[in-house]
Amino acid sequence: MADPMKIRATLQGDTADVRVLMRHPMETGTRRIASGLVPLHFIQSVIVQHNGKTIIDAQWSQAVSRDPFLGVRVKGAKAGDKISVTWTDNKGDTRTDDVAVTTGA
Amino acid sequence: MKHPRRTFLRFAGGAGALFFAAAAGLLKTASAWAAPWNKTAFEAKALAETLRGLGVSNPIDSKDITITAPDIAENGAIVPVAVTSRIPNTQSIAIVAEKNPFPLAASFDLLPGSDSYVSTRLKMGQTSDIRAIVKADGKFYTTVKEVKVTVGGCG
Q1: Residue B130: CA atoms inside 13 Å, Cβ hemisphere, count?
Q2: Among B132, B136, B126, B133, which Cα is nearest to B145's?
Q3: From CA B150, how far away is CA B155, in angstroms rounded?
Q4: B97 to chain A: nearest residue by CA?
Q5: What is the ipTM of this complex?
Q6: Which domain covers residue A27, as residue numbers?
Q7: Residue B136 sits in which domain range?
Q8: Interface-testing mutation among A20, A40, A59, with chain B (most B C-beta atoms within 10 A)
Q9: Which of A36, B6, B102, B142 has a 20 to 30 Å separation from B26 between CA atoms?
Q10: Nearest to residue A46, comparing CAs of B78, B46, B118, B47?
Q11: What are the tens digits of pLDDT across the range B80-97?
């Protein structure tokens, strides 16, 4: 199973500022090593959920940088709300991590 | 009387139904509900083809979209790009690096409960316009910002 994501969700008024750092090689399929080209291997889909409700549904290309960063903002959030992030890559691997919204301090 | 056997059978029946639903794929994980990956748009090799793949028609230039990205990116492998849309009822934001081998870099469907803001880091092969395309109320809006790249980041 892939390495966990680092997620931070801090409240600013009633909006949660969510920052996610994922661990993934995001290979473009054009990188050459001694044995040939490293195959395409990248996150294609990212879902962000707030208390179980999907609020962002993203599709990515291999042009998103390695160890992807994602910043989004969730409206109507309260401290303790659950923010969950799921990514799925072109090989079908997937990873979900979640975090509780904290007050900014 | 508590009818422990009946309680047990009711529980077992419920659990059984849940098991069959899961086995039948009726219970889906978050990723299973995601929109299908737009292969046509992501495999387009030029801007016009990309816009067609995204279903974009007649995008209107808009000053209500802000692209936050460096004027000069030191490292083309990690270019921070953020897009904010002040257009009401923004439904989605797509980010295109026009001179990349596959221009469409990322696309975000913003459902109710999300702010119309996204931030990420992209690979850029060379100096290029970064174009943001916003869909709001079924119409398309766009703006560009040039990002100069000193060391390309695709290969």
Answers
A1: 32
A2: B132
A3: 14
A4: A63
A5: 0.96
A6: 6-103
A7: 35-149
A8: A59
A9: B6
A10: B118
A11: 999 999 999 999 999 999
